[in-house]
């Protein structure tokens, strides 16, 4: 038996997405830049997909650009906002994904921009007041980059409130919505979002395809140079199957959003209640009461030799999970997110992340295995 509880890392493809992509790969091989029938057919698939992604976010068709992944899209936004839009300060938080943080390190190392990090509390929330203060006390052209849902601990930021604050203070807002697209309703207009980034493989679509939303009034120049693809914004012959795959996956996720949310919440609740019943001194990282993503459960186990080896031993038992640590110079350390929320280093954090493909039986089985491994 193999159980997959690492859905925040990536998700299995939806069978309908797979069959749709198979047809495209088999039949629609034309180069979308060619003017003949084969090219036009491929081009029209891309444009239908763009329309569908735009609709899911309440964006205009011309505001969606396909990229190879969210990492590329994030690099594009942060670097080009500095280069083209006169951004001289970026406000972010230490719990952002490395695709944001490492791009900010780069911009700082080249002296291209000031970077300011908001502190987060023990649940991973920023303080709204701190953001307002920063924006009120300095009129440097600013971009705020704050994610929707945290991939490690599941805490969600109130993006509509952040968007409103940015809007009121003339700052641009980039939202990394990689973990929430297809799981939570996002309206880029209502939330005053200027830039939003997403990745197909997080919502049962293919890997190697992502997209960026760029609001119409923030024209940046292309990050990857070459041909005129993506209306001159992202050169390179398009990944047609990936583009149709991401659009199909988003359509399916959006239409089943409420049902999936309810089901995944029930898995999470059962998992937590069984852990509380059977495992001594478990704690949870991230917000557990108000704003959290249903698919992420970050568990903090008390210190023990068994806990240290848990991710490996779960893997041996056929259960895939993820540890909240990174190995640097042979020493395991808590990840940057766990460090930012002050997770006690002696405890062991493990992320269990769910999808509608998981079952209550898998939850029960995993708890039995945990009981045995931690005994
Ligand atoms: N942002 C968040 C919150 C993520 O979880 C991830 C992937 O783990 C990314 C960005 C980057 O996505 P990709 O690796 O598909 O570029």
* Ligands: pyridoxal-5'-phosphate
**CATH-defined fold name of the largest domain:** Aspartate Aminotransferase, domain 2
Q: How large is the share of residues in beta strands?
A: 15-25%
Oligomeric state as shown: single chain
Quickly name the level 1 CATH class of the largest domain. Answer: Alpha Beta
- Helix content estimate: 40-55%
Total helical elements: 12
Query: Main β-sheet, in a few words?
Result: 7 strands, mixed
- Net shape: globular
- The CATH homologous superfamily of the largest domain: Type I PLP-dependent aspartate aminotransferase-like (Major domain)
Low-confidence stretches: none
Q: Can you put this structure into words, describing what you see?
A:
The protein has 375 residues and is α/β, with parallel strands linked by helices. The radius of gyration is 21 Å and the shape is globular. A hairpin with a 2-residue loop joins β13 (325-328) and β14. The chain has helices at residues 15-27, 37-57, 70-85, 98-109, 128-136, 159-168, 240-255, 257-278, 305-308, 310-316, 336-340, 360-374; strands at 3-4, 64-67, 89-92, 114-117, 142-145, 172-176, 195-199, 210-214, 283-285, 296-301, 319-320, 322-323, 325-328, 331-334, 348-353. The chain contains twelve helices and 15 strands. The protein has a seven-stranded mixed sheet with strand order 2-8-7-6-5-3-4, sandwiched between helices. The protein has two domains: 3-11 and 257-373, Aspartate Aminotransferase, domain 1 (Alpha-Beta Complex), CATH 3.90.1150; 15-255, Aspartate Aminotransferase, domain 2 (3-Layer(aba) Sandwich), CATH 3.40.640.10. Helices cover 40% and strands 16% of the residues. The model has no long low-confidence stretch (mean pLDDT 96). It binds pyridoxal-5'-phosphate.
